[in-house]
Design a protein that fits this description.
The protein is mostly helical. It has eight helices and two strands; from the N terminus they run ααααββαααα. Strands 1-2 form a two-stranded antiparallel sheet. Strand 1 and strand 2 form a beta hairpin. The radius of gyration is 23 Å and the shape is elongated.
Length: about 140
């Protein structure tokens, strides 16, 4: 009879053959499957937390591309995620970041989209207008 580790490895190998997975994802899944099989062998209930963990539709590395951002919940591709998260999943960007462990420094928009918006702002002189408004505000505070 196969050991629990061998059975867990077979299950993970079958899953990995149809789904691209990183090395860390393989190790994490192997651990989860082994723990679940151990619990079943002992007659214990499998932890409810393991059942509620949502597997991302794509990996975090693949989700944030140059021309598109992919929703890790449903796999839909778009230029920016904020509106999609609010309308399709009733979720705030901070909740999405927490669920999928996305750092705050990672923008939820495609790089090309952010770059084009930045260039549009530079072309319109919005940065200069902001600097003028801040200077005027600091002058009025200094007079008081």
């Amino acid at each position: 009879m196969a050991t629990l580790l061998e059975m867990a490895a077979e299950i993970v190998a079958a899953h990995a053959s149809t789904t691209p997975m990183s090395r860390d994802e393989l190790v994490a899944e192997l651990s989860e499957i082994h723990n679940a099989l151990s619990a079943l062998e002992k007659g214990e209930a499998i932890a409810a937390e393991a059942e509620t963990i949502e597997v991302p539709a794509v990996s975090r590395k693949k989700a944030f591309g140059k021309d598109k951002v992919t929703c890790m919940i449903c796999g839909k591709e778009m230029k920016t995620l904020a509106r999609h998260l609010r309308t399709a999943h009733d979720m705030k960007p901070s909740e999405y970041r927490k669920q999928f462990d996305i750092p705050r420094t990672q923008p939820l928009a495609a790089r090309s989209y952010s770059e084009s918006r930045r260039q549009m702002a530079v072309d319109r002189g919005l940065g200069e207008n902001l600097a003028k408004a801040r200077a005027a505000k600091s002058k009025t505070k200094a007079k008081k």
